[in-house]
Amino acid sequence: MSRVVVIKLKELLSAKGMTIRKLSRLSDVRHSAICDLTNQKRINVHVHHLARIADALDIDDMNEIITFEKIED
């Protein structure tokens, strides 16, 4: 069994009624980077991007943004 990283931005944005574009403006992270994170298309995640996104979404617990899930091999 192995694990995958899951970025939960789609759920967070929906819950907060926020668009990717608005999050991009508030966090000063490129729209395309947030779009890729939201759609699980980005392999590398910059820690400073996560910090800016957390600030913009007023999140203190990184587990609200990123988690690990077990997958069967």
From TrEMBL:
Q: Which residues form the HTH cro/C1-type domain?
A: 9-65
Q: Which organism is it from?
A: Neobacillus niacini
SUPFAM superfamilies (UniProt xref): lambda repressor-like DNA-binding domains (SSF47413)
**InterPro entries, A to Z:** Cro/C1-type_HTH, Lambda_DNA-bd_dom_sf
- Any idea which GO molecular function terms this record carries? DNA binding
Give the protein name, as stated in the record.
DNA-binding Xre family transcriptional regulator
Keywords attached to this Swiss-Prot or TrEMBL record, sorted alphabetically, are:
DNA-binding
Domain of life of the native organism: Bacteria
- Which CDD domains does the record cross-reference, listed alphabetically? HTH_XRE (cd00093)
Q: Which Pfam families match?
A: HTH_26
So which residues are the signal peptide here? Answer: none
